[in-house]
Amino acid sequence: MTRSRLVTALLVLGVVVLIALPLVLDGGTSEFAGTDATAAALAEERGAQPWFESVFSPSSAEVESGLFALQAALGGGVLGYVLGRLRGRRLAERSREDGGT
Q1: CA-CA distance, 100 to 92, in Å (whole number)?
Q2: Is the pTM of this model over 0.85?
Q3: Which among 20, 70, 76, 98 is least buried, having the fewest CB atoms inside 10 angstroms?
Q4: Is residue 98 packed enough to be buried (19+ CB in 10 Å), middle (13-18) or exposed (0-12)?
Q5: Looking at residue 98, what DSSP letter applies?
Q6: pLDDT-flagged residues of the chain (< 70)
Q7: CB atoms closer than 10 angstroms to residue 64
Q8: Across all residues in the chain, what is the average pLDDT?
């Protein structure tokens, strides 16, 4: 095994351990709530009233997390496309400056 493959394997193993270790140590006893929900509950406890109602409320937490993942994927795709276009444009300009076609 080459050194670069060993480093890659160790990094992947480290990421898996960092993700799995808290779940194993916790034993599944805690509730994972987002900071948005926690902040909203705290604000309502202090008497704050919402300014408006949601236009769309997902039917379950799974649908909500799926929509969030879809939003993140679309945003990543758009960002990747824009960065790729900008890099391609820069390379084309350099090619023209160097006397290329």
Answers
A1: 9
A2: no
A3: 98
A4: exposed
A5: T
A6: 28, 30, 32-33, 100-101
A7: 13
A8: 88
User: Quick count: other Cβ atoms within 10 Å of Cβ 40?
Assistant: 13
CA atoms in the 13 A half-sphere facing the CB of 26: 10
What DSSP line would sit under 14-67, residue for residue? HHHHHHHHHHHHHTT-S----HHHHHHHHHHHTT---SS--S---SSHHHHHHH
Q: How far is CA 9 from CA 15, 20, 86, 88, 101, in A?
A: 10, 16, 33, 32, 43
Instruction: Single out the residue of 79, 81, 86 nearest to residue 94, CA to CA.
Output: 86
- CA separation, residue 72 to residues 49, 69, 78, 83 (Å): 29, 5, 10, 16
**Cα angle vertex 93, ends 92, 98, to 5°?**
95
